[in-house]
Design a protein that fits this description.
With 406 residues, this protein is α/β, with parallel strands linked by helices. It has two domains: 3-151 and 285-360, Rossmann fold (3-Layer(aba) Sandwich); 154-280 and 363-393, Rossmann fold, CATH 3.40.50. The protein is 42% helix and 19% strand. The protein has 15 helices and 15 strands. The strands form four sheets. The chain has a six-stranded mixed β-sheet with strand order 1-3-2-4-5-6, sandwiched between helices. A four-stranded parallel β-sheet has the order 8-7-9-10, sandwiched between helices. A three-stranded antiparallel β-sheet has the order 11-14-15. α5 (110-123) links the parallel β4 (103-106) and β5. The longest helix is centred in the C-terminal third of the chain and has 20 residues, at 307-326. The protein is globular, with a radius of gyration of 21 Å. The protein starts with a strand and ends in a 14-residue tail after the last helix.
Length: 406
């Protein structure tokens, strides 16, 4: 297992602040705020999250130190959870108990997010989820120390599912990753399809992660459904799309990638992915702010950021600003400040963390460009619609979170 520790000393960076009085005034335990990036550094989600999420976190810390000049030190740790809940929970427990970590973040894969959220609650530390998608995070399994920041399956279904039905894709068959994320994405999209007047003809579930999707694709083909909904992500989605093309399933049936990232489009190429709809919470080429940050990220990581990596920067910055504003790393104090303070940055405009831990912000319905439409590297999307946050995410009135009083 990989673990990396980077100590970023404000005193060293600024060379001017008297350490002891400033730290005492800050009331930060032991004068250090420690952030643990727990992610997939070697598996199917390493491209959309992984080392890029570590890079984004470091950028946030460096920018925070330069702009806010905090009177405390910041340390960043990183580890590979291998997309396994037991490894993730054991590492989080070790970080909390032995290393004094205050906040664990990224947590790509729902199983790892749910496992770490339980440990965070037990140890009274903060968990900020950027990589995982299941709405269970802010429903049945919600707690008062966790934030679901970047996206979820409800928002994905609301965007892509609704758009494909509107385009005439009325009958659906799902190929679903057989764990909590896939189940959640299939259910949420099925609900949207049926509400929009469509129908679901069936589904099949594949092991996670998977390599050979031939039998699942043949089941989808024989269903006669107009749309094959891919309720998976990362390499599973990429391999599903490639194998569908090899079997001649497309263009006779339409594929709907229900969770896709710009790194997936980059791997597939525009010729293969053209015209597909997808929903994201961030696109690097959206405006001047997104372009400026993304080009800085590209200089360090040599790839444009996914929404997970952009959300990782934004959420880390939001957390650090709350620590400075309160002068404390106490979990309850910092969480209260984070929920009270709107998020206004390149990632989210007027974003807000609700009492169930859901960060509400605009989402974007995107369509992949044809090769001839792309004018420069990573110019992959046409923005078809902006989905306001209060429409994109599940309303509190429908919440199953025990923290929400109805």
């Amino acid at each position: 297992m990989k673990q990396r520790l980077i100590a970023l000393s404000v005193a060293a960076s600024l060379g001017a602040l008297p350490a002891a009085p400033a730290l005492a005034q800050a009331r930060v335990s032991d004068g250090v705020v420690r952030i643990g990036v727990l992610t997939d550094l070697s598996g199917t989600y390493s491209d959309l999250s992984g080392q890029g999420s570590v890079v984004a976190t470091k950028m946030a810390v460096e920018d925070f130190i330069a702009a806010d000049k905090p009177a405390f030190k910041i340390e960043v740790l990183s580890a590979d959870h291998q997309n396994k809940g037991d490894i993730a929970s054991n590492k989080a427990r070790e970080w909390f108990e032995k290393d004094g970590v205050d906040m664990v973040t990224d947590l790509v894969t729902t199983s790892t997010a749910l496992a770490v959220m339980k440990i965070a609650k037990e140890k009274n530390r903060i968990a900020i989820v950027n990589g995982a998608a299941s709405t269970r995070i802010t429903n049945e399994d919600c707690n008062d120390v966790s934030v679901h920041y970047t996206y979820d399956t409800y928002a994905l279904a609301n965007g892509t599912g609704r758009a494909v039905v509107k385009q005439g894709g009325k009958s659906w068959f799902f190929i679903t990753a057989d764990y909590a994320f896939g189940h959640s994405l299939e259910k949420d999209t099925s609900d949207v399809v049926k509400a929009a007047g469509g129908s679901v003809l069936g589904s099949v579930r594949h092991p996670f992660p998977g390599n050979d999707f031939s039998s699942f694709l043949l089941n989808a083909q024989s269903s006669g459904a107009q749309v094959i909904g891919l309720a998976n992500a990362g390499n599973d989605t990429i391999n599903s799309i490639k194998q569908a093309a090899e079997f001649g399933i497309t263009p006779k049936q339409t594929l709907a990638g229900l969770l896709m990232f710009i790194t997936d489009i980059h791997s597939l190429g525009l010729k293969t992915a053209q015209n597909m709809y997808l929903t994201e919470g961030f696109y690097w080429d959206l405006n001047e702010q997104t372009r400026a940050w993304s080009k800085r990220f590209f200089d360090r990581h040599k790839r444009m950021p996914t929404m997970v990596q952009a959300g990782q920067y934004s959420s880390t910055m939001h957390y650090l600003k709350a620590v400075k504003a309160t002068g404390s790393d106490d979990t309850a104090v910092v969480m209260a400040r984070m929920k009270k303070t709107p998020i206004n940055d390149f990632f989210a405009t007027k974003g807000q963390i609700r009492d169930d831990g859901r960060m509400v912000h605009d989402m974007y319905l995107l369509q992949v460009k044809k090769p001839a439409e792309s004018k420069y590297p990573w110019d992959y999307y046409n923005v078809r619609a902006t989905i306001p946050g209060n429409e994109a995410f599940q309303p509190l009135s429908a919440s199953r979170c025990p923290l929400i009083r109805k």
